[in-house]
Design a protein that fits this description.
This protein has 349 residues and is mainly beta. It has helices spanning 2-22, 332-337; strands at 24-25, 33-34, 41-42, 47-49, 51-52, 56-59, 64-66, 79-82, 94-97, 106-111, 115-118, 122-124, 137-140, 142-144, 152-156, 164-166, 170-175, 179-182, 186-188, 200-203, 205-206, 215-217, 225-226, 230-235, 240-242, 246-248, 260-262, 265-266, 273-276, 279-282, 290-291, 296-303, 308-315. The chain has five domains: 2-82, Complement Module, domain 1 (Ribbon); 94-140, Ribbon (Complement Module, domain 1), CATH 2.10.70; 144-202, Ribbon (Complement Module, domain 1); 205-262, Ribbon (Complement Module, domain 1), CATH 2.10.70.10; 265-341, Complement Module, domain 1. The chain is 8% helix and 35% strand.
Length: 349
Amino acid sequence: MEFMLTLFLLCPFVIFTTTASDVCSRPDLPVNVEVDGLQRFYNPGDELVLSCIQGYTPILGPRTIVCSARGTWTKTRLMCKPKQCPYPDLLSNGELYYEDTVFQSTINYTCHEGHILSGASSAVCQASGTWSSAVPECKPVTCDLAPIPQFGMIIYDKTISGNSTEYGVTGTYSCLPPYVLFGSARAECTASGTWTKTPECRVVSCPPPETIDKGYMSNSDQRPFDFMETVKYGCDGDYALEGSMQIVCQQNGGWSEKPSCKAPCSVGISRGRILFGGQKLWIKDLPSKRVLHKEIVSLYCKNKARGCGYPVPTQCIDGKLIIPECFEEPSAIDYNLHSGSLPSEIEQC
């Protein structure tokens, strides 16, 4: 009787110990792997079917694990990799930014200046392996036709049809004669959907042009002159015109700079030979003993140490010709009887 009581008291312990060593506890699953109907304990021989969570694709295997008699689960190499979405198409007139194309990746879209996004500005790679939205469009901003100034017109740089234009379209303004354009002649449809500032067409005239000293004009009418009208100038006698021979009525209502008439120069010597126009001339053979404004004449000097002659140039500037300091005008006897000894005739340095 005592033996039976002892066996009865020990039996629960024996049964409990045997049961605890033969069951499997809840398995440790790989990342992104799931099973249906998880429970706390499993009996030997129980099988679990493994699957990937939404948005992931299984690779390798096996895809089942079994509770063994030792109370451990069989091994699996099952891995779940994120699903891949297709690479997105390029966005015309825009940019797209993304780091990857796998499940839950995001693409952001932006448009270049002058274009407006039509469609979603972003897309997410879904569990189905497709993007949440299609690639949007970048549509150009539109402008109405360019405003035309009174008495003006515009010529577009491309053919325009309809009553609107697109961003970046350009044109050139001009005015009907005798009107003058004030402002930029170039026009452009901007990113804001408006045109650049429209110029004005105004009438411009200049007062009668002024005369110049020692000169004359091709037109001396005492009347207003229209924009771009011209008048020509000339000089009297041996006076030389300096500046443009023609002036133009400008957009500001004033004339372009008028020229002036510069006086010729007298060569202030009576005896000697000069170099002028590439030729040696006795001063008596120089017509009127004059050279014109800006013309160059050379007078001969003597290098006494070496006994040779050399020409020294000097230029006529509005009636003034400076005689070189080294020049010595010969006496009448030397000039008339011994001209061969003059600096212009002896050996040149």
